[in-house]
Amino acid sequence: MSDPELWDLPDVDVSWAAARVGDEEFVGHRARALVAPASVVKVQVALTVASAFETGVLDATSRVRLGADVRTPGPVGMSLMDDPVEMSLRDLLVSMMTISDNVATDALLRAEGLRAVNDTTAQLGLGDTFVASGLRALLDGMAHEAGFGDYALMAAHDHRIAGPPTDDEVRARLAGCSALDPERGSRTTPADMVLLLSLVWTDRAGPPPGCARVRSLMGRQLTRSRIASGFGTKTAVAAKSGGLMGVVRNEVGVVSDPGEPAVAVAVFTRREPGSPAEPAEIDAAIGRLARRAVDRVRSRG
Fold first, then answer.
1. How far out from the chain centre does Cα 175 lie?
2. CA atoms within 13 A of residue 128's CA, in its CB half-sphere
3. 238: β partners
4. Helix 190-201 crosses helix 42-55 at what angle (to 10 degrees)?
5. Which residues does residue 13 pair with via DSSP β-bridges, in sequence order?
6. Distance CA 295, CA 228 (A)
7. SS3 sequence of 42-73
């Protein structure tokens, strides 16, 4: 379902929420609808790990060796490397949040545990937010549901050589898989993510130094084509994007301008197979919606 008032890409469904940081009231469209978060879950992973650094549960300087056997597929970062990498936990956090490194994410989940991440969101009152698995398990699970042994086999499949399924058949199977169904896989809502960002920005989500670390890393995310695209260079946007298999394309973030209240925004989109919308069009539409949402929140006084 699209939002005709703020969303101008009618062939892509959208759910969104926005609120002043520190304010429990929000505006939005389908703000409490369950959505597939994709890499947006890295915000709560970062918060859990950064808090563990401050409480002494994890040593931020501990070094982790990452070989090919633990290399989670992904479009950037260590997923593309051939040789083993050794990195501290706090530097893995940087890689996860700035370039959305999947290898770093799964390494941090092994260090802290998936249960700790879900305990964090539950304790903060995010009742509709849950991370079902790490990223390697998520990708391999998608491949299994699409009829392949693992993600690597699916990525290497060429129907012109190996026969069916065709690329269109694979895309159709993936669109219906559990990882893209928030009733069965990882889930959140725009309202939950706006609340989480507000708690992080007001140091109520965990130890203040840990919250500050998350805010700083979100401010250094390299992706600037979504929420940030709706604002000028004088506007600070700290964000975390997420996308999966060309179906979901999301971003959450906090928009700050001098003399104006900071506003938390969460935008989640779903493009079904066959939609003519291009990724760049969806990114630009997310930016336009974010700008309109921020203006609406600030105009409410």
1. 18
2. 17
3. 254
4. 30
5. 270
6. 14
7. HHHHHHHHHHHHHHCCCCCCCEEEECHHHCCC
Cβ within 8 Å of residue 78, ≥6 positions away: 66, 71, 85, 95, 101, 103, 104
Question: For residues 25 and 261, is the Cβ–Cβ distance under 8 A?
Answer: no
Residue ranges of the alpha helices (H) in the chain?
A: 42-55, 89-99, 102-112, 114-123, 135-145, 151-156, 159-162, 167-175, 190-201, 208-219, 279-299
Specify the amino acid at residue 250.
N
Name, in order, each residue with C-beta under 8 angstroms of 27's C-beta and a sequence gap of 6 or more: 17, 18, 19, 293, 296, 297, 300
* CA atoms of 299 and 271, how far apart (whole Å): 31
The pLDDT tens digits of the residues spanning 201-240 come to 999 999 999 999 999 999 999 999 999 999 999 999 999 9
Structure-block tokens of residue 46: 């970062």
CA distance 195 to 33: 14
- Residue in the block written with tokens 């633990």: 70
2, 12 in Cβ contact below 8 A?
yes
pTM over 0.85: yes
Q: Per-residue DSSP letters for 246-299?
A: TTEEEEEEEEE-TTS--EEEEEEEE--TT----HHHHHHHHHHHHHHHHHHHHH
